[in-house]
Amino acid sequence: MKFRYIHIALMAAASLTLPSCSDNDYTELDKGSVELALTADKAETVLSEQNHAVEAIALSWTTGTNHGTGNRISYTLELAEAGTGFANPHIIKNAEQQVYAWKPTVEELNTLVRSQFGTLPGEALAIEARITAAVTGVDDVQTSVTQFTVTPYEPVTPTLYLIGDATPNGWAADNATEMTRSDNGVFTWTGNLSPGSFKFITTLGQFLPSYNNNGNGQLVYRTSDDQPDLQFTVEEAHCYKVDVNLLDLTITCAQTEGVAPPYDQLYFVGNETDWGFRQMSQDPLDPFLFRIGVFFSKGGEFKFGTAEGSWENMYKAAHADAPYTDQAVEFVKGFDPDNKWVLTPGETNLAYKICLDIRPGAERMMMTLFTPYTEMYLVGDATPNGWDLGNATPMTQDAADANIFTWSGHLNTGEMKFSPDKQDDWNGAWFMAASNGEEPTGTTQKVIFINKSDNGCQEQYRDISIGGIDNKWQIVEAGNYTVTLNQLLEEVTIVRN
After folding, report:
1. Contact call for residues 329 and 395 (beta carbons, < 8 A)
2. Least crowded by CB within 10 Å, which of 248, 291, 387, 410?
C-alpha cells in the first residue's frame, strides 16, 4: 500500500512535465509496455436459475499500453461462438474507458447466450471473448482472446395465475387471478378461497402450460392434455395465503386472518367519468389501499364502486356534499344513503391524487391536490449517468401534457428508478417499480410514488415505513429504449426500440 501512494505522487509530479491529455485527465498516463491480456475465471459454467443473481463468470483484462502518449485507452469487448472468427460478434463493451472487467450475473449471461446465440437449454456453447484496446491518435490496436463454455437453462415463467372453482374468478382462463412475483419463480397471493379445487396457469387465457399437484402436495409442470390433471383442494372457505416456488416446485397454502381486503378491485365513479366506472390501482405495498389520479374537468361529484356497473356495495362519503378534505367513509350495501364527495367550482380544472383505504371499520379517503413536477430524471446503473444523483439523466416534459415525461437512449443492464427532485440525501420523491427487480414488459406498468420527506405520504401507510422502500426496475438486456412516465396516472412504459 505504501508503494501505491508513492507511485501516485510520482505520477502527479510527472504531470507537470508531460504533455497534457486533451481532457486534462491524468488518470491515463504512460502504461509502459504491459501486454493486453484477457482472462476468464472459469473455463466452464453450467447456469442454474436457483443462482440467478449470483455472478456467473468474470472476464478481466490488463490495461495494455498507450505507447507513452498519455492518451486514454478505449476497450471493446466482444463475444462470438467459438470457431466463427468473430464474423458476427456480440458487443458487450463498446469503446469504453477505465473499465477492466465484465461480470454478468447468471440471469444476465443466460439471457445473452439464449437470445444472441440461440443456444438451447442444457446445450453447452463454446464462446470466444475478444478484448480490443485502442489508443487515441495511435493506429495500432491491441487484442487478446480467451474461451469459455456456457450451458444455459430455460427460465420459469415471469407470470402465474390461480384458476379453479376455489378461486375468486373460477375456471375462466382469460380472467384468472394473478399472483404477485417477488423473485424468479417465487409468487404469492392472499385472498378468499372457497371449497373446491385450483391449479396454476402461466399465461392468461391459456390452460396450458400449468402447474398441478404431483400427488404428494408438490408442484408438477404440465404441458399436455395427455398428462394427469390433478389439482390442489380447499376444504373450508377462508382467507388464505398461497406461496409458490417454481424453482423447487413447492407450495404452501395456509389460512390467515385479517390480511386480505374485502375487495381486490375498486372503481372511481363520478361526473368526471360521466358516471362510468374507472378502475383504480391496488397499492402493491398495502393491498387495502386503492389509488387513482384524476384531472377534474367536468364536475366534482364522486364515490367508489366495488363491481363494475353496480350501484350497490359502494364506498361513499359519510355526509352529503362532503368536501374532498373529509376523510370519513361509509360502506353502503344498498342504494341509500347516496352521499358523495363534491368539489367546488374553484376546486375543479385541477389534478388530484386519491387514496382510498378500505380496512373494515377504519375506512378513509385521502385526497390531495397534485401539481406536476417540472423535472424528471433516470437514476441507476442501467442509465447513462449511473447512480450519480447530481448528474442524473434528464427526461423531456411533454409540451401538451405536463404529467408526461419521455426519454430515448441506451440503457445498460442493471437497475433504474425515477427522481423528480434529486434530493441530496436520497430521501425525496421517487417513482419506483411495483416490486423490486421488476422487468420491463414493453407495455404500460404501474409505478409506486413515494415521497420520503412528505409526512402525508407516510400517513397513508399504517404499518409500512416508506423510508425503507427502494424498488427498482431491472434492465436485463442492454439496448436502445424509449421510456414514457405519466406522473399523474403513475404509469410507465419501457420499450426496447
Report:
1. no
2. 248
Output the pTM of the full model. Answer: 0.52
Half-sphere exposure of 18 (CA within 13 A, CB side): 20
And the C-alpha cell for 26?
491524468
β strands within 202-266, DSSP E: 210-213, 219-222, 232-234, 238-245, 250-255
The domain containing residue 418 runs over which residues?
A: 377-496
CA distances from 393 to 384, 386, 437 (A): 7, 8, 20
Specify the length of the chain in residues.
497
Same domain, 49 and 116: yes
Cα–chain center distance at 311: 36
Alpha carbons 201 and 212: distance in angstroms, whole number: 9
Q: What is the pLDDT of residues 430-470, one digit of tens each?
A: 999 988 889 999 999 999 999 998 888 989 987 777 887 88
For residue 282 the three cell numbers come to 391496488
**Euclidean distance between CA atoms 299 and 478, whole angstroms:** 46
The confidence score (pLDDT) of residue 29 equals 53
Low-confidence stretches of the chain (pLDDT < 70) are 1-33, 257-259
Q: Is residue 262 part of a domain?
A: no
Give the Cβ contact number of residue 269 at 10 Å: 24
| Same-domain status, 364 and 434 | no
